[in-house]
Amino acid sequence: MITCRSQVTEMILSCKVRKGLKWRQVAEAIGMSKEWTTAGCLGQMAFDKTQAETLGKLFELSDEAIAWLQIVPYKGSLPTAVPTDPLIYRWYELVNVYGSTIKELIHEEFGDGIMSAIDFSMDIQREADPKGDRVKVVMSGKFLPYKSY
Amino acid sequence: MITCRSQVTEMILSCKVRKGLKWRQVAEAIGMSKEWTTAGCLGQMAFDKTQAETLGKLFELSDEAIAWLQIVPYKGSLPTAVPTDPLIYRWYELVNVYGSTIKELIHEEFGDGIMSAIDFSMDIQREADPKGDRVKVVMSGKFLPYKSY
Amino acid sequence: MITCRSQVTEMILSCKVRKGLKWRQVAEAIGMSKEWTTAGCLGQMAFDKTQAETLGKLFELSDEAIAWLQIVPYKGSLPTAVPTDPLIYRWYELVNVYGSTIKELIHEEFGDGIMSAIDFSMDIQREADPKGDRVKVVMSGKFLPYKSY
Amino acid sequence: MITCRSQVTEMILSCKVRKGLKWRQVAEAIGMSKEWTTAGCLGQMAFDKTQAETLGKLFELSDEAIAWLQIVPYKGSLPTAVPTDPLIYRWYELVNVYGSTIKELIHEEFGDGIMSAIDFSMDIQREADPKGDRVKVVMSGKFLPYKSY
Amino acid sequence: MITCRSQVTEMILSCKVRKGLKWRQVAEAIGMSKEWTTAGCLGQMAFDKTQAETLGKLFELSDEAIAWLQIVPYKGSLPTAVPTDPLIYRWYELVNVYGSTIKELIHEEFGDGIMSAIDFSMDIQREADPKGDRVKVVMSGKFLPYKSY
Amino acid sequence: MITCRSQVTEMILSCKVRKGLKWRQVAEAIGMSKEWTTAGCLGQMAFDKTQAETLGKLFELSDEAIAWLQIVPYKGSLPTAVPTDPLIYRWYELVNVYGSTIKELIHEEFGDGIMSAIDFSMDIQREADPKGDRVKVVMSGKFLPYKSY
Amino acid sequence: MITCRSQVTEMILSCKVRKGLKWRQVAEAIGMSKEWTTAGCLGQMAFDKTQAETLGKLFELSDEAIAWLQIVPYKGSLPTAVPTDPLIYRWYELVNVYGSTIKELIHEEFGDGIMSAIDFSMDIQREADPKGDRVKVVMSGKFLPYKSY
Amino acid sequence: MITCRSQVTEMILSCKVRKGLKWRQVAEAIGMSKEWTTAGCLGQMAFDKTQAETLGKLFELSDEAIAWLQIVPYKGSLPTAVPTDPLIYRWYELVNVYGSTIKELIHEEFGDGIMSAIDFSMDIQREADPKGDRVKVVMSGKFLPYKSY
Amino acid sequence: MITCRSQVTEMILSCKVRKGLKWRQVAEAIGMSKEWTTAGCLGQMAFDKTQAETLGKLFELSDEAIAWLQIVPYKGSLPTAVPTDPLIYRWYELVNVYGSTIKELIHEEFGDGIMSAIDFSMDIQREADPKGDRVKVVMSGKFLPYKSY
Amino acid sequence: MITCRSQVTEMILSCKVRKGLKWRQVAEAIGMSKEWTTAGCLGQMAFDKTQAETLGKLFELSDEAIAWLQIVPYKGSLPTAVPTDPLIYRWYELVNVYGSTIKELIHEEFGDGIMSAIDFSMDIQREADPKGDRVKVVMSGKFLPYKSY
After folding, report:
1. Is C49 helix (H, G, I), strand (E, B) or coil?
2. What is the pLDDT of residue B71?
3. Closest CA to G44 of G96, G112, G120, G107
4. Taking the mean position of all CA atoms in its chain, how far away is CA C118?
5. Which residues are the active-site ones (chains A, B, C, D, E, F, G, H, I, J) (predicted)?
6. Domain D5-68: which topology?
7. Closest residue in chain E to residue G68, using alpha carbons only
8. Mean pLDDT of C14-37
9. Residue G90 annotated in active site
10. Nearest chain F residue (CA) to E112
């Protein structure tokens, strides 16, 4: 009996290691970006029926598990409020160190409002650099102005 | 008597509002990007002597305050571990929802290691869009491989 | 020297008590709803120039304070993550008890996405009832679908 | 052996996914609102005998599970004090940003007291809008004046 | 300039110590119980005009402070979520040790609902006992049944 | 293998639901108050041999479980420092709102010391009231003066 | 204007450093143990009139401060739940490492109940030892049996 | 498969209840104090081979469990930072109320440094008293002076 | 089915105790330092294929477990933000007591930047000392200057 | 009036910036290491009379401030349990990632006990490296075996 989406995430991770799959391959299989696909497989997005069935074959999932992939999950992928993993912590640190800067500059350009984390996309690429390759991340989120009424 | 950098940050913010300055203008004055300049003025970066003196004139700071601008500050710009401000929270949420995804994809591309938050730069731009303009953020951080020994 | 918006909020609250003003009167003075006006005066919204000047006269504020009213504030009006005040706690409790229900029903109706807290309005009214009058709150937030990419 | 209500919640969720049920259908089956019914199925309300038996058939529950549905549960549906799920977080954010406003306006209208979260009902509807449909939530809670003695 | 109720609480406490007043005397002066009066003076209840003026004379308060006594305060009298003071902690401990018991017994007697902390009164008395006097506390709160709808 | 008292609490709760027992009946069976008996069954008190054996028969417990009922448990019946359940939260709220009041009044009557939560008893009754029945709780705790030495 | 006991504690500490007083001398002056006297001066105990007046002379306190010394303070001398100071942390660690042991042994000897922290005394002495002197602490607290009723 | 020491602690506690053993008997069996022995059995100390084998017989442990008794455990015996159990909380309270006092008096006697919690012993005894027996705890920890360099 | 790396860590620890292995032996088997090897076995580093296979033989792991050893783990080896284990706490304490000192001295020598915890190595040795042997730890981390842009 | 050591720390930091002093110079002035001297100036160590007077001249302190430098301070130099400053966080991260490794290796070499953070010294040096200079930190702490008794 499957009682929450995180059980399916565990099945996917377990199968991915056993079969040595890459996230890029998974993304290609369902025809979506590697960022959104990975987030979905890690329990942060809901898949449509076709995507779920393709993933079901790839990860050898039961029909019940495939049904769960189409349910909107309870999101949030970190076990603690402040992440302990060094790679993820650096991102938390960027929010901490640059958070007030991002706020100031978005308000200066757009006025009061936010950058959406829902109408949002992200692209992660390797940036070749003679002094050591870099991770280049492009984020694009719709500006949502605060409504006054 | 100035006893910590945050007092100088308050002086800068107070003067900026009184004089109606823009961060872009401040950045131009010292010849650096608006992102790094704003972070520095908000107490997250240290300035060199020339930069500090230029800022001192712009924000009408005392010599003591100008000296403090050249001291490396205790960093972290948020009053709580989970930020309450909606704009900044969306960034925390991105780390929470996409954190494990970012980790998986960087490891898939680069192996074990992190994206540096120190050898790092950020660029925030308006992205015109007929369905509503977007905030485009490009981040670039050096990949640092975990040393095995 | 004013160094953050919360100082202006204190000035407003202090003057409001001294002069015995009502939030409805304040809202009428700037021609906006009582909900948005109160939130703004409590340091959660930014006012435009005309609104700020009207509030400045009403609350006997200095030009510097009026300038701060036009700056987007660092939002979040509660001193603790779980509010201690009984009236506000009941709202936290509603989120706690009904949060998963709201999630299920919005997803059932709209699919994956959220109800915006930015493109949002609220109306609070007295609802007469022979068994004891009730507080009626109508909230309206744009549905934002999660972008897949 | 069932030892707490959350085990029954898991059975319900598991069966709901397997059978592809909608909360509206569940609500109709027991003749109550979709909001109260969903909250009850998610372990936040107690059902009477008839309701529990109807749910038992719908979700293929054992007699023991049906007995548990009639027990008042330990309430609170969120795994953390500050919810990580974006949809639910927006509600927490509303309490954070508008909490002090709601407090001021209810006190201005009613005096000292609270809006009940017990003698309370909620209605969630789609609100058609050419700029994008909205979620409309109407909440009604009895005003309870603080007793002075 | 008074900017929040807690400043008035401090004035009251300071004057009470200077003049050596007893809470019983304060309560008699405004004709209310010692429990409600003390809670009000400690910033947990709002007073009416007559009460506030009487307290103003007793505690030598300014007109501005008297006005603040009539404003509903932000409630919650403890500096930490788990109180450190031993006397108050014992009450927290009672909630911790007996909380589930109180829940079970109220539900057994009344069904689903709560004991109101708003329509509530409390009486604290000395109970003579040859083995050592006891503190007797009688609490009375209206039962509020959960509304089903 | 039973390794802690909470396992026995779960057995008791499970059997109580299956057999439809009332706490009053349980209390009568061992000849103690319903308050102390319930607290004990919920893992907050230790029973003597006779009581434990009677409970063993009532709840169909093994000899090992009966032995555990006689062991002093690790006390504290709430899963979080601030309880989420609305009924129990109201009690936490009372401590928060009235905590400083209780402290002041006990000190005014008795001097420095505490009301014992160990040499303590509690009685919960229905109080008939035409405006809605009330929960009446009488608590009695020995006053313990702080020793000076 | 003095508004809480901690202000008096600061006056005492400030004067103690200026005058180079020892806690032993302070204790002798009021004829109590050094442990209780120090705790009282640090804001954890209430003094009687004679003691307060003697302390007032010793620490050059105003009459208002002397009055505050006779008020029962809000107790708890540590700024964080887990103390950061290494000396005090070792005591926290002892509770952490030996807490369950102390519980087991007191219950084995006395049955269910606690060691009082109110009817309690403590004596701290130097214990000469050729391998390095030791701190010897003798604590004595009345055993309080849990009341069954 | 045993994967951590706490599993062995559970086996010991389970067997101790089944066989009705006393900690004093366990301590005698291995010829150590009851305080150290109990702490070890509760997973806070490591045993040598002979001790572990004696305990293995007493508690009917497997060879694997006996091997784990000789491994240094991850220490800390409390499930929360602030303990909820009343007996253990009193000790936490002593640290909170008397912590600053202990610090002052040890520094006054010894200078800067700490009382060791490692080179440490404890003795818990019943102290007969006509007004009610007392728990007497003697602690002895080596003073460790802070090294200056 | 293995679903996360920590399951493999448990297998390794369990086998290590059963077979009485030393970390030095493990390190020699894979030809790496004892520090890095231990961290890897405890789930903090990723192994290459050869290392993983050698460890698989040593610890009698399945192929699935060996595959997991080559996956970058979610790092962070402590169950709580402030560690309770005395040995590990001392290190936390060093960060707490000396953290600001380390920051000042690194900035004084190198300017703004950090000592890398990724391009990092550590060596732990026994340092013989007639007054008691010492633990000598040598840490070496690349200095990373903050990028200005 | 100086009421705690942190006020003196602020005076020192303020003067250090005004006069452009280096910690190395300060250390030379009192003839101690730069690590211990800096820690002391930042409020983590107590100075003797001669050291305090030398520092008093260097930092232009009053006699009262000089007296406070000789008082053992309440230690702990970080404003939050998990440090936000990136340089200091890396050290917290090392404890988090390598904490269990350090524990294992010290126990393997020394048996049960800890590395002292009191009988401890630290040396921070620049380590020249063609691939980028490194920070080399040597720590030496006495091993303290757990006493069994």
Report:
1. helix
2. 96
3. G120
4. 11
5. 90, 93, 116
6. 434 Repressor (Amino-terminal Domain) (1.10.260)
7. E17
8. 97
9. yes
10. F87
- Quick check: helix, strand or coil at residue F140? strand
Fold classification of H86-145 is: Cyanate Lyase; Chain: A, domain 2 (3.30.1160)
Measured in Å, how far apart are chain C's first and last C-alpha atoms?
Answer: 48
Nearest to A118 among D13, D80, D86 (CB): D86
Tell me which CATH homologous superfamily contains domain C5-69: lambda repressor-like DNA-binding domains (1.10.260.40)
Q: How far separated are the first and last CA of chain A, in Å rounded?
A: 48
Cβ density class F79-115: b for 16+ within 10 Å, e for less: eebbbbbbbbbbbbbbbbbbbbbbbbbbbebbebbbb
Q: What is the CA radius of gyration of chain I?
A: 18
Q: What is the mean pLDDT of residues B123-132?
A: 98
Chains B and J touch (3+ CB pairs under 8 A): yes
Query: Chains A, D: CB contacts under 8 A, how many?
Result: 31
Distance from CA of B8 to the nearest CA of I (A): 18
Q: How far apart are CA I145 and CA B48, in angstroms?
A: 14
User: b/e string for H30-60 if b means 16 or more Cβ within 10 A?
Assistant: bebbbbbbbbbbbbbbbbeeebbbbbbebbe
Active-site residue flag, J5: no
Residue D41 phi, psi (nearest 5): -65, -30
| I31 dihedral zone (left: phi>0; alpha: psi -120 to 50; beta) | left
Nearest CA in chain E to H82: E82
ipTM of the predicted structure? 0.96
Confidence of residue A105 (pLDDT cuts 50, 70, 90): very high
CA-based nearest residue to J21, from J4, J39, J38, J33: J38
Whole-angstrom distance, CA of residue D103 vs CA of residue C88: 7
Subunits next to G (3 or more Cβ pairs <8 Å) are E, F, H, I, J
Average pLDDT over chain E, rounded to whole? 97
State how far residue H131 is from chain J, nearest Cα, in angstroms.
32
The one-letter code for the residue type at B124 is I
What is the C-alpha separation between I10 and I24, in angstroms, rounded? 19
CB contact set of J57 (below 8 Å; sequence gap of 6+): none
| DSSP for residue F146 | P
Å between G131 CA and nearest CA of chain I: 11
Shortest CA gap A109–chain D (Å): 23
Nearest-CB residue to C120 (from A100, A118, A147): A147
User: Under an 8 A CB cutoff, do H45 and J148 touch?
Assistant: yes
Catalytic residue, candidates I28, I64, I93, I104: I93
Q: Measure the CA dihedral C58/C62/C63/C65, to 10°.
A: -90
Residue with structure tokens 């979709």? Answer: D34
Q: Residue C123 corresponds to which tokens in the numbers above?
A: 């109306």
pLDDT digits (tens, 9 = 90+) for I29-69: 999 999 999 999 999 999 999 999 999 999 999 999 999 99
Of residues J134, J97, J109, J121, the one with CA closest to residue J35:
J121
Q: Which two tokens stand for residue B58?
A: 């712009």
Q: Answer yes or no: do E86 and G3 touch at CB < 8 A.
A: no
Spatial neighbors of G31 by CB under 8 A, at least 6 apart, are: none
Give chain A positions within 8 Å (CB) of J89: 89, 93
Best residue in G35, G37, G118 for a mutation probing chain F (most F CBs within 10 Å): G118
Mind listing the pLDDT tens digit for each residue in E30-70? 999 999 999 999 999 999 999 999 999 999 999 999 999 99
Tens of pLDDT, residue by residue over A3-30, are 999 999 999 999 999 999 999 999 999 9
* Domain chopping of chain G, boundaries: 5-69, 86-145
In three-state secondary structure terms, G145 is strand
DSSP state for residue E147 in the 8-state scheme? P
CA distances from residue G96 to A67, C148, G110, I76, J117 in whole angstroms, order as listed: 46, 49, 22, 22, 19
Residue listed under structure tokens 């040096």:
J125
